[in-house]
Amino acid sequence: MDEIQTLKQWVAESNNIVFFGGAGVSTESGIPDFRSVDGLYHQKYDYPPETILSHTFFMRKTSEFYKFYKDKLLLEGAKPNAAHLKLAELEKAGKLKAVITQNIDGLHQLAGSEEVLELHGSVQRNYCMKCHEFYDFAAIKEKVEEASKTNEPGCPDYMVPKCEKCGATIKPDVVLYEEGLDNSVLTKAVRYIANADVLIIGGTSLVVYPAAGLIDYYSGNKLVLVNLSATAQDSRADLVVRGKIGEVFSQL
Ligand code: NAD
Hints:
- This protein is an alpha/beta fold.
- The chain has two domains: about 1-30 and about 80-120 and about 180-250, TPP-binding domain (Rossmann fold), CATH 3.40.50; about 30-75 and about 125-175, 2-Layer Sandwich (SIR2/SIRT2 'Small Domain').
- About 30% of the residues lie in helices and about 15% in strands.
- The chain is built from nine helices and nine strands.
- The protein has helices at about 1-15, 50, 55-60, 60-70, 80-90, 105-110, 135-150, 185-195, 245-250; strands at about 15-20, 95-100, 115-120, 120-130, 135, 170-175, 200, 225, 240.
- Strands 3-2-1-7-8-9 form a six-stranded parallel β-sheet, sandwiched between helices. Strands 5-4-6 form a three-stranded antiparallel β-sheet.
- Helix 6 (about 105-110) links the parallel strand 2 (about 95-100) and strand 3 (about 115-120).
- Nicotinamide-adenine-dinucleotide binds near residues 22, 31, 36, 120 and 204.
């Protein structure tokens, strides 16, 4: 495929690559995205995922939130795929400056990437809403399990993890709909993108704002979109590679 050859050459020639990705980067690791045909938006729940993953819903129907969260986002055992591993390798080689991700799964760090800007937070971090005690992924998973055994389905605390110190509800450090992004992370992401020589965007439908608007800060002439399906921004790209990102990156 000529596009892959071009991408390979741009990667070989640059020491200032920035990667910006979304849920499609992790589908080959077994984590469903939102908008693909088998993504979460096409599965059946009592409420649409955008509603469940909103701040209002979390506050009002915490038990329902955790039911969805446990089934779909607290996924244990997912491993980095070829895309995560290649990005970590490029950073170690001094070619890639940063990974900016909309994902909350922590797979880039697991692959060995160091400069990872998580625009939407991470399931790996959780805090008590009252005393701010920290809980990691394993602790939260255990507490959700515990709360599903000690409370009956239908009870407001069913599956809701509680703080060991003060008993208040624990909230994942993920940015829910209606919540703002961390300004310092966003500013850093803008800086990396504005200074990038090659910007590779992959596995994102580019419809979730403000994250999707980051593309506007790139002023170079090597904007690459690697995605399985067309995105609304394809016409702005200097190179469009249509395919599975893990398969594409393993050829670089
Ligand atoms: P999205 O679901 O809107 O879009 C994913 C895009 O990736 C689609 O265009 C799809 O065609 C493409 N895709 C799927 N598999 C691919 C593959 N193997 N290779 C290349 N492209 C592939 O996801 P989004 O744009 O990231 O926005 C959704 C929001 O959902 C984000 O804010 C993110 O925080 C959150 N989310 C995160 C995870 C995760 O952490 N893994 C999973 C689901 C949703």
